[in-house]
C-alpha cells in the first residue's frame, strides 16, 4: 500500500469528472482503498467509455449527473454529499474542441472551478480540494525548457487560457479563505499528456491509435514532431491522491500549485510514440494532415517540487506505460467484459510498485 492510502480510507471524497477517463481511474483507485467516493459529472459522451466498461458507477457511494457551469446544481450536490475532500477533474479538456466551443470551455473550466470552490468553502467539514489544471497553463516559449510552478501563466488556445484563468481563480480562493474565516487547503495539479486504457476522446493520439488499430484503418495525425510529456493516468492519480492525503494530514504547504511530469527521457515526439506503440500492437498506416489550428510543439514540466516535497515520482516509465496501455486496449477489444478486471489489475500492479521502495529519481528529469 502506498504510504498515503491509509489517510484516505473512509474519507468522503467528491470526485468531479468521475464519468471521464482520469476520473474513472481515480474513483476506482479511491474505492479500492476504502474511500467513500461520490461522483459529479455529465453523462459519459463517448461509446464505449471507461465509466461503463469498468463499472465506475458501481464503485461509487453516489453518482450525480450535474453541470458544473450551474452554481446551484453544484451546491445541491455538495449539500447532499457533504464531502471531506474534493478532487476536481471535471472540465472541457480538449484543445481542438476549445477552438470550436470557446465560451463553453471557459464556462466549464473557469466558472466550473469557481462554482466547485465556492460550494466547498461554504461547508466547514471540507478539509480541502485538489483542482486539476494542466501543463498547458504556462506561457509556452516552445524552447528546450521545463516549466516550474513559478513560471508565468498564459495560454494560446482557449483550453490552455481557460485553465490558466482557473489557476488564477484557485490562487485567489486560496488567498481569500482567511477573509471568509474559512480553514481549507487548496492544491492545484498540472500534469502532462495523460495516457492509459479506457480513453476514447476525440483528437487524442492514443485513443485515435486504439480506434484505428481496432478497425484496421489509417491513423490521421497532425503534428508528428510535437514533443509531449507522456504519462500513465495512474502516475497522475498517484500525485492527486498524495495531495489529498497531505490535506487530510493538515500539511499547509500542500495548498499550492504542483507539477507532475514524467522523466525527461519520456518526453518524446508523436512519431516516436507511434513507433513504440506499433511494437506492442500493430503497425498502422499513418496520414499526416496538418491543422491550421495552433497547438504547442514542445512542452515539458519540471516536477522537482513534487519529487522532493511529496516524495512523488512516476512509478512507470514510458515503456511500461505503453505496454500497460496497449495491453488494456487489446484486452478490451478481445473481450469488452474484461475491462473492469484489467483496470483493477493495473491499479493493483501500480499500487504494488509504489509500495516497494522506488529507485532514486536520478538527476535528469523533466
Ligand atoms: N487527458 C489529458 O491528457 C490531460 C492532461 C492534463 C490535464 N487534464 C485535465 O484532467 C481532467 C480530466 O481530463 P480527462 O482527460 O479525464 O477528460 P475526460 O473528457 O475523459 O473527462 C472529463 C470529465 O469532466 C466532465 N465534465 C465536462 N464538462 C462538464 C460540465 N460542464 N459539468 C460537469 N462535468 C463535466 C465529463 O462528464 C467527464 O466526466 C481535466 O480537468 C483535464 O483538463 C487532462
UniProtKB/TrEMBL annotation:
Signal peptide segment: none
A Gene Ontology molecular function term of the record: CDP-glucose 4,6-dehydratase activity
EC number assigned by the record: 4.2.1.45
Keyword Lyase attributed: yes
InterPro entries given in the database record: CDP_4_6_deHydtase (IPR013445), NAD(P)-bd_dom (IPR016040), NAD(P)-bd_dom_sf (IPR036291)
Chain ranges of the NAD(P)-binding domain: 14-325
Entries under Pfam families matching the protein: GDP_Man_Dehyd
KW Lyase (keyword) present: yes
Keywords recorded for this protein, A-Z: Lyase
Record-linked PANTHER family: DTDP-D-GLUCOSE 4,6-DEHYDRATASE-RELATED (PTHR43000)
NCBIfam families: CDP_4_6_dhtase (TIGR02622)
Name of this chain's protein: CDP-glucose 4,6-dehydratase
UniProt source species: Xanthobacter tagetidis
Gene: rfbG
